[in-house]
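USER: Note each token:
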Amino acid sequence: MDWVAALAEEARRKPLARVAEAASKHDRSAGGVGHALKRQERRGLLERLADGVYLNKLVASVTTRDIVNELLPESYISLGTALAEWGLSSQNPALTQCVTIARGRKVQTASVNIAYRKISPDLFWGFTEKKARYGGYRIAEPEKALLDWIYFTLKDGLAVEFDEINFEKVSRSKPGGVREEISVDGDSDIVFSAAGRANRGVAAMSRAAGFHHRRMR
């Protein structure tokens, strides 16, 4: 079988090559396909991202946003990456930061650098979907990205510093969503109100991170 031609054809539609999918499509054993794809990896046509999953190097202009949800469907881009994308922060991390309800992991290769941090299913909300070249990806809404960032900063035992946060990008105008749960005072402190929450996830996040009814510096 001409695997180079097969990979070139697949590259027009999606960025990842999977052993299981290729075995099913070409009616071959998973073991045989696995060995074939490893040979293409050694030739530089594939880059291994996980067991049985490869980045197709014949794909044009692929970005991490094309693959974050292909690798882990139950995840979304958040934290510093989302803050930078929405304009809340001028600091853009070198790696793509995501949260997931699956096991946390890092995917680091010559072309890909993604960190997935595990979060409780109760806190897995507040994201939207955006288009990428080869599909779509989930990304936290600006306010949820800020909450996630505060949550993991405190969870890591670090001080929350708001010097680089642009609070003009934080909105509370959307009813029924996370925007109602955030208020910003004149000193750019974040205050979380416990009264009358419709979204119980905010209260759970506050308690879990230890900033329930607390004012951040």
Confidence is low (pLDDT under 50) at residues 174-202, 211-217.
